[in-house]
TrEMBL record:
Keywords: FAD, Flavoprotein, Oxidoreductase. The keyword Flavoprotein applies. It comes from the Eukaryota. This is Berberine/berberine-like domain-containing protein. The keyword Flavoprotein applies.
Length: 279
């Protein structure tokens, strides 16, 4: 595994109210789809539903991995009016202190990948709005849907390093990852949360097909137990990985011992701490 030295860099959290949602969608679509994407920059855009007030906030997690603050490539995001702004130059240890851990929560993660499209971003939130009312009475519910850039520049760098087994290349265009992280308290709510969120992602796929932005890639680390990330890599890559498994892991240890999906005991997302910061 290659490693690299990382000096201090510019990062943090920016929270805005939902009146700026479409402005941030437009900024995210332009940023992720840029033909001159800066590989040192990224911004994860989180749509956070607060069931107690049936309201939304937008949590940005921008970073620029050079010691350079207020970089122009992220200026459009940083200029959006905010409730909280912790952007600064520091190190990863310091940034990690903004994370809040609350053991004992039940958790579900689901993911999908689409080609960047402002219309798709709007469709995702429209479907989300249709889903959350059914979950309003779930005890202790925390809800965050994260949008993460996967630009072509990443695939170009991968190709130069020898390629990848994920089925991703320049022909896919600029993509973005959608990750739902939701946590709750009671096991009795498991079926409701799973059925509603699973249906929501099925509807995402319907909208993506309508808009012509579907992509089969499913990020393994975020996949729910019923998703098929390896199948999304394509038949050729799947066959290659199966051959590697037969040669080096004939007992299937790395497949059988980690069944996939997270229905567990961890909340390690910035948004819960953010709730404490603004409430």
């Amino acid at each position: 595994m290659r490693s690299l030295a990382q000096s201090d860099y510019w990062a943090g959290s920016i929270i805005s109210d939902s009146t700026h949602m479409d402005e941030l969608f437009r900024a995210f679509a332009s940023f992720t789809g840029s033909p001159t994407y800066d590989p040192y920059a990224t911004n994860i855009l989180n749509l956070i539903w607060q069931p107690a007030t049936d309201s939304w906030i937008m949590l940005q997690s921008p970073s620029y991995t050079k010691r350079q603050s207020n970089t122009p490539v992220l200026e459009r995001f940083a200029s959006v009016p905010s409730l909280v702004n912790t952007m600064r130059i520091s190190n990863s240890t310091d940034f990690s202190k903004e994370l809040y851990s609350a053991p004992g929560q039940r958790e579900l993660m689901i993911t999908a990948t689409f080609r960047i499209s402002l219309s798709m971003l709007r469709a995702i939130h429209a479907v989300e709005l249709q889903t959350v009312p059914a979950l309003r009475n779930v005890s202790g519910l925390q809800w965050s849907l994260a949008l993460q850039p996967q630009p072509v520049v990443m695939f170009k760098a991968s190709a130069k390093a020898g390629g990848n087994s994920l089925g991703l290349d320049e022909s896919d265009g600029n993509l973005f990852n959608v990750l739902l992280t939701t946590t709750w308290v009671d096991k009795k709510d498991d079926p409701l949360v799973e059925s509603q969120t699973r249906r929501m992602f099925e509807q995402f796929e319907v909208e993506a097909a309508r808009l012509g932005v579907r992509n089969p890639y499913v990020y393994l680390n975020y996949a729910a137990s019923w998703q098929d990330p390896i199948g999304g890599y394509g038949d050729g890559n799947k066959g290659f990985l199966q051959e590697v498994s037969r040669n080096y892991d004939p007992q299937g240890l790395f497949q059988k011992s980690v069944p996939g999906g997270v229905q567990a005991v961890r909340l390690n997302d910035r948004e819960l701490r953010i709730h404490h910061m603004i409430m």
